């Protein structure tokens, strides 16, 4: 048996920083990364044979719990039939149909009757996904959506919000939250200035900033890209009606709204954030990832036929992928969506609420200034007196309190995201036993956060 420290030493000799994705290096929490060998339900086990209750969930995909039997069986069956053909399979169509059918919301007139603060908005589509293209990563999905928006509008500029993460493509790394925030990097080296100049970065939840950027350059802007409910600077919920206003402003200027649901899609509800945003709105393109691949590399772009059919082979916007729609990934995605029924969402919502409330109670008890931020069943703790609303207010929190909190939880067998800028991922398999183990670990971690001092 090796130790985590030995594995990390060896990995650093073979891979930059010993990892294949930076946040896994545990740099910002000053701890030895755990090397996992197996996982089941809400638990992960490291090379030392130690079991942890997991709140990372593979960064989202493990929504049913790790190695869910139905997902594993679906993947095994698919593998036995062939790992990939470089040609189309019936399963791809079925997954595309499943995505299109799920991403819907009740007719607006009915909603308007039920929710007094909503004015029916004429012409709003309740089935925004008519065609789907499957890709392998969320990065590819957002990159393709942007190329499509540029192809459709004949314009070059893209508006993004500070602190939102849309993957690691050149044009989207400016003030990208999460990983770059964890490493305290301003952006990335290696992005040509000419490409960075095509992205206009503005503060989140600030409609005046949106109006200003459109007033100044509206006829050059192809699209606004937005995390449906931001979760890569910790959780920062959209202000009431923000997404709807964003869509209206973009559309008034002939630009598209790209709704990034890579993280929220099929997690916060059957139709993602689109299905639960209290004010209906009309995104043009929606990107999916994580849950939709059930733990294997799969992501997707969806939208109306008129836009999506601008993609090759029908249209002039090129996009392709050797492993796109891989049969194993499709099988995992389909099995996962099939098991994400109302009962599964209820289990996730209940477990998430219990963990969130226990965490805030423990921190209160220890006298730690903090806020609990929630968007549906996604939540995170921010060490601030007032709820952060954008990247600047997120960065102003007492982030130094998180590493000791994290380490205390880990020492007691709870694996949290190794950064204060990440959401906590609860799964449908977090039963009472798993939740109690988390709850029991919280008081000591809260005391560690209380005792923390700035570096
Ligand atoms: C909102 C959002 N968009 C895009 C991505 C990129 O996805 P991937 O890591 O699969 O490339 C992520 C990943 O965390 C994300 O959270």
Produce the secondary structure layout.
Elements: H1 4-14, E1 36-40, E2 43-46, E3 51-54, H2 69-81, H3 90-102, H4 108-114, E4 131-135, H5 138-153, E5 157-161, H6 178-182, H7 193-196, E6 199-202, H8 207-217, E7 221-227, H9 242-252, E8 256-261, H10 272-276, E9 285-288, E10 299-303, H11 305-308, H12 327-339, H13 342-365, E11 371-375, E12 378-382, H14 391-395, H15 402-411, E13 414-415, H16 432-451
Parallel strand pairs: 3-13, 5-6, 5-7, 7-8, 8-9
Antiparallel strand pairs: 1-2, 2-3, 4-10, 9-10, 11-12
Helix pairs in contact: 2-12, 3-12, 8-9, 13-16, 15-16
The chain binds pyridoxal-5'-phosphate.
Pyridoxal-5'-phosphate binds next to helix 5.
Question: What attributes does this structure have?
Answer:
single chain, alpha/beta, Aspartate Aminotransferase, domain 2, 4-stranded mixed sheet, 13 strands, 13% strand, binds pyridoxal-5'-phosphate, PyrdxlP-dep_Trfase, pyridoxal phosphate, Aminotrans_3_PPA_site
Work out the strand percent. 5-15%
Q: So what's the overall shape?
A: globular
**Major beta sheet summary:** 7 strands, mixed
Low-confidence sequence ranges: 109-123
The counted number of beta strands is 13
Radius of gyration: 21 Å
The topology string of helices and strands comes to HEEEHHHEHEHHEHEHEHEEHHHEEHHEH
Strand order of the largest sheet: 4-10-9-8-7-5-6
Subcellular location: Cytoplasm
Pathway: Porphyrin-containing compound metabolism; protoporphyrin-IX biosynthesis; 5-aminolevulinate from L-glutamyl-tRNA(Glu): step 2/2
Catalytic activity: (S)-4-amino-5-oxopentanoate = 5-aminolevulinate
Keywords: Cytoplasm, Isomerase, Porphyrin biosynthesis, Pyridoxal phosphate
């Amino acid at each position: 048996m090796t130790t985590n420290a030995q594995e990390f030493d060896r990995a650093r000799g073979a891979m930059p920083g010993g990892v294949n994705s930076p946040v896994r290096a545990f740099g910002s929490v000053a701890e030895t990364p755990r090397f996992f060998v197996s996982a089941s339900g809400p638990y992960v086990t490291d090379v030392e044979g130690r079991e942890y209750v997991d709140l990372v969930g593979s960064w989202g995909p493990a929504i049913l719990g790790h190695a869910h039997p139905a997902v594993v069986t679906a993947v095994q069956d698919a593998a036995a039939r062939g790992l990939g053909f470089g040609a189309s399979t019936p399963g791809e169509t079925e997954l595309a149909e499943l995505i299109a059918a799920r991403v819907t919301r009740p007719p607006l007139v009915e909603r308007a009757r039920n929710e007094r603060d909503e004015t029916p908005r004429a012409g709003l589509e309740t089935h925004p996904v008519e065609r789907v293209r499957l890709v392998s990563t969320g990065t590819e999905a957002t990159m393709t959506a942007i190329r499509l928006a540029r192809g459709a509008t004949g314009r070059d500029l893209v508006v993004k919000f500070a602190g939102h993460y849309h993957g690691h493509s050149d044009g989207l790394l400016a003030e990208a939250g999460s990983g770059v925030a964890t490493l305290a990097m301003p952006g990335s080296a290696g992005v040509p200035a000419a490409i960075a100049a095509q992205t206009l970065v503005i503060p989140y939840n600030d409609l005046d900033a949106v109006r200003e950027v459109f007033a100044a350059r509206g006829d050059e802007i192809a699209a606004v890209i937005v995390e449906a409910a931001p979760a890569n600077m910790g959780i920062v919920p959209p202000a009431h009606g923000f997404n709807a206003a964003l869509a209206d402003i973009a559309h008034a200027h002939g630009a598209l709204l790209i709704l990034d649901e890579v993280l929220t899609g099929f997690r916060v509800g059957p139709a993602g954030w689109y299905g639960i945003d209290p004010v209906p709105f009309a995104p043009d393109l929606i990107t999916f990832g994580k849950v939709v691949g059930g733990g294997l590399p799969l992501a997707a772009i969806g939208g109306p036929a008129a836009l999506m059919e601008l993609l090759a082979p029908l249209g002039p916007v090129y996009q392709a992928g050797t492993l796109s729609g891989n049969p194993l990934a499709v099988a995992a995605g389909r099995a996962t969506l099939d098991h994400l029924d109302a009962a599964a969402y209820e289990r996730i919502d209940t477990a998430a609420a219990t963990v969130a409330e226990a965490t805030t109670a423990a921190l209160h008890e220890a006298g730690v200034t903090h806020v609990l931020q929630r968007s549906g069943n996604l939540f995170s703790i921010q060490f601030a007196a007032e709820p952060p609303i954008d990247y600047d207010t997120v960065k102003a929190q007492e982030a130094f309190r998180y590493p000791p909190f994290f380490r205390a939880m880990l020492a007691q067998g709870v694996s949290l995201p190794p950064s204060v800028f990440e959401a906590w991922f609860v799964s449908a398999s977090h039963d009472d036993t798993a939740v109690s183990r988390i709850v029991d670990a919280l008081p000591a971690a809260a005391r560690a956060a209380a005792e923390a001092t700035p570096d």
